[in-house]
Design goal:
This protein has helices at residues 4-39, 50-61, 82-89, 168-171, and strands at residues 42-43, 46-47, 64-71, 78-80, 94-97, 100-109, 112-125, 130-144, 147-162. It is α+β, with helices and mostly antiparallel strands. It has one domain (4-171): Nuclear Transport Factor 2, Chain: A. A hairpin with a 2-residue loop joins strand 1 and strand 2 (46-47).
Length: 172
Amino acid sequence: MLTLEELAAEVGSLRRRVDACESVLAIQAMKARYAELVDRRFSAGRVVDQSTLAELAAGIADLFTADGSWDGGPGLGVSVGRPAIASRLSGTTFSFSRHFFTNPRIVVDGDTARGRWDILSPCRRATGESYWMCGYEDDQYARIDGVWLHRSMKLTTVTMTPVGEDWTKIFV
């Protein structure tokens, strides 16, 4: 038979484990929403109209903390703060992209967490060239008023391979 103290400790442990599991699921849902909004900036191989683009960019920025950091790497730049993130994502260097995030590795520590996601993204530059982008994103998260948000997101591109090229030449 468990003592009252042992039972309280076990319940506390279970609460922390359930919170961590629910947090991982909430972070995964938030990341899926991020990908959906980023990809909705394009329709029928074109950038959507400016009004829709601005609305989507604001929605993307709202998935970051007020002082959050969006780092697209050397090719896409860094934006800090929701207004700067919205501004950056309301302009685009692509005419199409589709984000496939896989293999999430998320570690929760109370109201903060970190994660790494592999990413594969077919994309087309505004100039017309189509590519397969492969890389990963390292994220920091914060739970603000019960909602998980990006504190920072940093894209590392492993390869940006033109469609039709042999990937094995790049990864060898």
